[in-house]
Amino acid sequence: LQVLIFANSVEEGVGLRLVSEGARSLGYMLNLVAVGLGIEQWEINPKALARYREVEGQPRKDDDIDGWLLARMCCLGVAGCHRVADPRPEERRLARLSRLRSQVKDKHITAASQLRSRLVELAPEVVSKEWEGPRYSSKAMLAVLEQWPAFIGLGSARLSTIERVLRSASRSGAPAAGMAKELKAMSRRVRMGGEEREVVRLEIELLVKELRGLDSAIGEIDRKLKKAVEEHPIAVKLLAMPGVGVVTAAADIGEVLPL
């Protein structure tokens, strides 16, 4: 509303610039207004603003003073100021998808780390480099933990049953027999008490469900991301370059192209 009032109060022939620290989040709302009014949009790197704050002798961050500093930086052409072009809908789509993928991947990393911590308490050998069974974060290990949470009941299970679970998850073929023996032997060496182990069982069940859900979400995002990239003419050209995949092309188009 303030931008609209100010834009209507300036003299005819006077050009306006809207300067912000970012064109996303709250800055996105300002940019929508600026686009409708035909106002130039400029973005300033927050790190550049912090350095310029020191140059001007400002002791601390202050929203009102920062607004004045942003305008001053833009008028003086200080390094870190960029003209922002209004992204097209397809570029906004790629930016949101790539950011969503990054957020979900971070959640997956956190959940996998928590699962690793629980397995270290149960049987440290499964996270060792010398471990010949399935990797702790693999689909095969998740399948085993779904069938036998906290490895409860794994020691009394038949080797053929364990092999079948491993093969259905990883299709590893011949190595499944050796992994099954390693898992069965390991489960008999777990020394955690019954009541405590029951709580860990619940933790592992929840973590496995979370990881399965995150895997499914990442797969769905990847499919949408690939489709969006293949529909963008510049992204297709980026994919033809060595070392550039779908995720890199999406981030370049969604984040860098508008600048």
Features of the shown structure:
elongated; 259 residues; three-stranded mixed beta sheet; mainly alpha
The description of the largest β-sheet is: 3 strands, mixed
Number of helices: 11
Strand order of the largest sheet: 1-2-3
Helix content: 55-70%
Give an overview of the whole structure.
By secondary structure, the protein is mainly alpha-helical. The chain has 11 helices and 3 strands, in the order H-E-H-E-H-H-E-H-H-H-H-H-H-H. A 3-stranded mixed beta sheet has the order 1-2-3. The longest helix is centred in the C-terminal third of the chain and has 37 residues, at 194-230.
Task: Give a brief description.
The protein is 64% helix and 5% strand. The model has no long low-confidence stretch (mean pLDDT 82). It has 259 residues and is mainly alpha-helical.
